[in-house]
Amino acid sequence: KRYFKEMFSVDSHVLWLPDSFGYSAALPQILMGCDVPYMVTQKIFWSYNGGERFPYHYFYWEGLDGTKITSFLPTSYTYQTDPGEICRTFKNRAQKEDLDAFLFPFGYGDGGGGPARDHIEYVLREKDLEGCPRVKMGSPEEFFHWMEEEGGPDHTYVGELYFSAHRGTYTSQAAIKKYNRRNEILLHEMEFFGSLLSMAGGSYDLARADKLWKTLLFHQFHDILPGSSIERVYKEAEVCQQALQEEALQIARNEAESLLKDKEGISIFNSLSFARKAVVLLPEEYQSGARTIEGVSVPVQKLKKGVVALVSLPSCGAVSLLPSDHCDKKEENLFPATIVKEGEGYRIENGKIAVWIDGAGQVISFVMKASGREISAGEMNQLRLYRDQPRAYDAWDIDSNYREEAPEFAKVEGISILDQGLLAVLEVKGKIGKSEYTQRICLGAEGERLEFDTKIEWREMHRLLKVSFPVDVHTENARHEIQFGYVKRPTHRSRQYDKDRFEVCNHRYTALCDESHGAALLNNGKYGISANKNDMELTLLRASTSPTRADNGMQHFAYALYAWEGSFIESDVVRQGYEFNVEPFVIEGSIPAFEAVSILPKNIILEAMKPAEDGS
């Protein structure tokens, strides 16, 4: 909108995205907040593998918070304007009733690109041609205004506009998706610490920030982020994303460092809008102990990865630590995270949860100690390798028939205990298909989530890797995180539209719950998932061959399991998702402990804090 205002003195009121692969239920709220009351798209009608046809072309679209925008969905973005095309399109429209006009984007190329002389001549002759719908030219906004004068839409569609195809784009090109998640977080950190610095009298480089945001947003264009571009695109994109990651990280760290008052000690910054406890890596000189500059002792331990501390962090703030030669007397009741070998498996526990891992690296029991409730309903953390050869659009699609062949399972070659105490780490090494992996199963001393940090040397072709978590929860719908909330999607396959959504997208979590308890599968950069009855299956990797061969090579990702008692709104699912994705900053220097923002109640989350775009 800003670009069109600056370059053409035009205020754009239409979202024109004909070729996107589905639309988030958060979008109407965002659009209306930006004074964009109209939307045009068309690809929802691409149900070439079967599926329930979308019922409307002209309708109100109601989003997650109840906001409505007016939408029109053509069935193509490269119409020709000859009478045959005009008549066929109007005759075959999905919405036969309550629709006497049709928006018709014409021309050569994606998006109704280049109209030629013949296109224009046909339109002029079809102004009032017997046997053909009357045709006139105009802008999309003119079309919406004219339709409003005729009374506006008669129908309302509620929720996301799910696209019954291209489900593989949630997973294809794993590296670029991981960069996307990481860089979204780092730009958030850059803006957050820039805000604190601005309030402290420092300066924030708006032009530099604008450039970084545009770099990220450019790489969210399809077909880059969906994973359906050619090989050269990803070679260039990874270079750009890596440079963006390094620059955004450096800016954020410099901003945080500028807030420090003293060069001694180290400071741990938390950008999240709630207090948290985190296991953080410290310099070697802290192995004898640590205390805050206010004099409170902090638990410290030397592990194989280095010296770590369990630090209590304030909301949107920081604490600073100094080396100390005495242990923490206030944390005598701290229940360490331990691992004990039991038969062919291992028991991992802390004061909150007890977990049993079998000899195949699978979680066969997950018990919440406070209630004694067992969450597992089968082998959790079960890696499954499926044959994945879609009928069309290799990088774009996952076809539902991948389940018709039995999957291949992992073969474990060794399990070893690496650490215990503030952090318990069990390392599992194994093979699946032609690929070798190393997985570290981690539990913090005060942690409520079991984490699975995974590295795999991926050597597959036309294979789909998923990880399964069947949990002891009965529910008809799973809750999948989207921007600013979640949507419910079915865990059953009762009717066609339920069957269509066999693979969906999520952000940081998917949860199965009732009003008494629940479990959530968290991730740090995976977007595809399926929920079938009580089983959450996170999609980890694909191996498409067209338009390029992907994703062979070393892949590194993590996911985690969290369970709770009570209703969803009483749970910490949302906070756990943020914590799992956002690491605290550890920076040399100190500052008195502070909390810049405090928010109550706990189900309110500060999503962003940033200096104003116009510099005000």
Quick tags:
616 residues; alpha+beta; 9-stranded antiparallel beta sheet; 6-stranded antiparallel beta sheet; 10 helices; globular
Which helices and strands, and how do they pair?
Layout: H1 2-8, E1 14-16, H2 27-33, E2 38-40, E3 58-62, E4 68-72, H3 83-91, H4 117-125, H5 140-149, E5 156-158, H6 174-199, H7 206-218, H8 231-258, E6 262-270, E7 276-282, E8 290-292, E9 297-298, E10 300-303, E11 306-313, E12 317-323, E13 338-342, E14 345-349, E15 353-357, E16 363-368, E17 373-374, E18 382-387, E19 408-409, E20 411-419, E21 423-432, E22 435-444, E23 449-458, E24 463-470, E25 477-482, E26 485-490, H9 496-500, E27 504-505, E28 509-513, E29 517-523, E30 528-532, E31 535-542, E32 553-565, H10 573-581, E33 585-590, E34 594-595
Parallel strand pairs: 1-2, 2-4, 3-5
Antiparallel strand pairs: 3-4, 6-12, 6-33, 7-11, 8-9, 8-12, 10-11, 12-34, 13-14, 14-15, 15-16, 16-17, 18-19, 18-24, 20-21, 21-22, 22-23, 23-32, 24-31, 25-26, 25-28, 27-30, 28-29, 29-32, 30-31
Largest beta sheet: what is the strand line-up?
20-21-22-23-32-29-28-25-26
Q: What level of helicity do the residues show?
A: 10-25%
**Biggest sheet record:** 9 strands, antiparallel
- Give the tally of β-strands: 34
Unreliable stretches: none
- Count of helical stretches: 10
Strand content: 25-35%
Arithmetic mean pLDDT: 95
Structural class: alpha+beta
What would you call the shape?
globular
Radius of gyration: 27 Å
